[in-house]
C-alpha cells in the first residue's frame, strides 16, 4: 500500500491533469485530490493492524469461557460502483481499507472517466499486490447486476444516484449480500446570529463551488437567521459573482465546466423551474456562451415549497438561500429534504450548538466549518443518502466478517 501511494506521489501532477481533462475540475483541486488519496493510503497502511486487531472480552467467565474474543476477517471480492466526480478519491477511499483488510476489489467506474479507471486497474499490482487483487471492469451499468449476482462476489459498495443505489441494493438483497450506499445529499449550511458572518460567507462560497459544485457533501442550502441574513447574503452574492470561471487547466480558474452536458441541462432545469415559480436570481442563472459545459455560479432566494430545487440535489454551482426567523425554523428547513448526508452549523452559542447536534438529520455535523471527508472520520449518511460508513476504523470493518470466538 505504501508503494502504491509512492506511485501516486511521483505522478501527482500528471494524474491531476488527467482528472481535469476527464471531468473538468480546476487543476489545483485535481492535484489536491491525488494527494488526498496518498494520505489515505498511508493512513490505512499504518493503522489497519490496529483497526483489525482481536478484541478480547474483559470478563470471559460471564459467558462460561476461559477466553472469548472477536476478530475481523476479510469477506473476499468486493464490487465497487463508483462515480466520476472524484475519479481517484472515490475509489481509493474504498480500495485502501478493503485491500488492507485482505479483500480484493472489482471496480465498475463511471464511463466518462476511463483513463482514471485504467490507471487504477494496474496500480496495486504495480505496487506489489498479488495478481488479481484489484481489477477494473469495463462494463456498462446494465451489466452490474450479473457481476453482483456471481457467487464469487461477496459484497458491494456504491456511490451515486438514488436510482442506481436502489437497483444495486435490490440485487444485493436478492443475493443476500452486504451493500454500502452513499447516494448524495442536499446539505444544509446554517448561519445563526452569533456566527462570524464574514467567515461563514467566504466558507459558504468554497463549500458550494468546490469541484465545480459537483460534490455530494457540498453545502447546497444556505439557511440564515433573519438577524444576519442581509449581511450574509450581500457578502455571499458578491463573492459568488466574482469567481473566475474558465479553462480548468488555468491555475487562476476557480470554477470549471460541469462534467457532462446532461448534468448542465439538469441543473439549468432546476434553476429555470424555480425562476418561473417566482424565485429571485441574485447572481448567475445563465449558460455562458462558447464551448464547454459551463454554468454560471448562481444564488437563488425566495424559494417556495412547489419548486423542485427544494427537494432535489443541485449538482453544480447553484446555491439556495433561505431566510429563517429562529432555530426551530432553521431546523425544519434543514431536515425537510429526503437526504441526510452532512451538515454545517455556524454558531458560537454552546447551547445552540448542542441543540443542532441533537436534532439535525445527518450523518455528520461540522460546526463553524465546511464539510470535508477525512480518512480519520467515518463518512456516510442516513435517510435517502444511504447507509453504511466509509473511512476511519468503521470503513475498514464494513467489509469484514466480525467473528465471535468462545473457548472453554
From TrEMBL:
> What protein name does the entry list?
Succinate-semialdehyde dehydrogenase/glutarate-semialdehyde dehydrogenase
Its domain of life reads Bacteria
Q: Does the keyword NADP apply?
A: yes
Cite a single GO MF annotation. glutarate-semialdehyde dehydrogenase (NADP+) activity
Tell whether Oxidoreductase is among the UniProt keywords: yes
Q: Give the family per the record.
A: Belongs to the aldehyde dehydrogenase family.
User: What region holds the Aldehyde dehydrogenase domain?
Assistant: 1-405
The catalytic activity of this protein is classed by the Enzyme Commission as: 1.2.1.16, 1.2.1.20, 1.2.1.79
**Keywords, alphabetical:** NADP, Oxidoreductase
Q: Give the matching Pfam families.
A: Aldedh (PF00171)
Supply the PANTHER family for this chain.
Answer: SUCCINATE SEMIALDEHYDE DEHYDROGENASE [NAD(P)+] SAD
Amino acid at each position: 500500500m505504501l508503494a502504491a501511494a509512492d506511485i501516486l506521489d511521483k505522478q501527482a501532477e500528471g494524474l491531476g491533469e488527467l482528472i481535469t481533462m476527464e471531468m473538468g475540475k480546476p487543476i489545483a483541486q485535481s492535484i489536491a485530490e491525488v494527494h488526498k488519496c496518498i494520505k489515505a493510503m498511508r493512513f490505512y497502511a499504518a493503522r489497519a493492524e490496529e483497526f483489525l486487531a482481536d478484541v478480547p472480552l474483559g470478563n470471559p467467565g460471564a459467558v462460561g469461557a476461559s477466553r472469548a474474543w472477536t476478530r475481523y476477517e476479510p469477506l473476499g471480492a468486493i464490487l465497487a460502483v463508483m462515480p466520476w466526480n472524484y475519479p481517484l478519491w472515490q475509489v481509493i477511499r474504498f480500495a485502501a481499507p478493503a485491500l488492507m483488510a485482505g479483500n480484493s476489489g472489482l471496480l465498475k467506474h463511471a464511463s466518462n472517466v476511463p483513463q482514471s479507471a485504467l490507471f487504477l486497474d494496474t496500480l496495486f499490482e504495480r505496487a506489489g499486490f498479488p495478481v488479481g487483487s484489484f481489477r477494473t471492469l469495463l462494463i456498462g451499468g446494465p451489466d452490474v447486476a450479473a457481476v453482483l449476482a456471481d457467487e464469487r462476489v461477496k459484497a458491494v459498495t456504491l456511490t451515486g444516484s438514488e436510482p442506481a443505489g436502489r437497483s444495486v441494493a435490490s440485487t444485493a438483497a436478492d443475493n443476500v449480500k452486504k451493500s454500502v450506499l452513499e447516494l448524495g445529499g442536499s446539505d444544509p449550511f446554517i448561519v445563526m446570529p452569533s456566527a462570524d458572518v464574514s467567515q461563514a460567507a467566504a466558507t459558504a462560497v468554497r463549500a458550494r463551488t468546490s469541484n465545480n459544485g459537483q460534490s455530494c457533501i457540498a453545502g447546497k442550502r444556505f439557511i440564515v437567521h433573519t438577524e444576519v441574513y442581509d449581511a450574509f447574503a450581500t457578502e455571499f452574492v458578491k463573492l459568488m459573482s466574482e469567481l473566475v470561471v474558465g479553462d480548468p487547466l488555468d491555475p487562476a480558474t476557480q470554477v470549471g465546466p460541469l462534467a457532462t452536458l446532461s448534468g448542465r441541462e439538469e441543473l439549468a432545469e432546476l434553476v429555470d423551474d424555480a425562476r418561473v415559480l417566482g424565485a429571485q436570481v441574485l447572481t448567475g442563472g445563465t449558460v455562458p456562451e462558447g464551448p464547454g459545459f459551463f454554468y454560471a455560479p448562481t444564488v437563488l432566494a425566495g424559494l417556495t415549497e412547489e419548486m423542485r430545487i427544494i427537494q432535489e440535489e443541485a449538482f453544480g454551482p447553484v446555491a439556495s438561500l433561505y431566510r429563517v426567523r429562529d432555530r426551530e425554523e432553521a431546523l425544519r428547513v434543514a431536515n425537510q429534504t429526503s437526504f441526510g448526508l452532512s451538515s454545517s452549523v455556524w454558531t458560537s452559542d454552546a447551547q445552540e450548538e448542542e441543540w443542532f447536534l441533537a436534532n439535525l438529520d445527518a450523518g455528520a455535523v461540522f460546526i463553524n466549518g465546511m464539510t470535508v471527508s477525512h480518512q480519520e472520520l467515518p463518512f456516510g449518511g442516513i435517510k435517502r443518502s444511504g447507509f453504511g460508513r466509509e473511512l476511519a476504523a468503521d470503513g475498514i470493518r464494513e467489509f469484514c466478517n466480525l467473528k465471535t470466538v468462545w473457548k472453554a
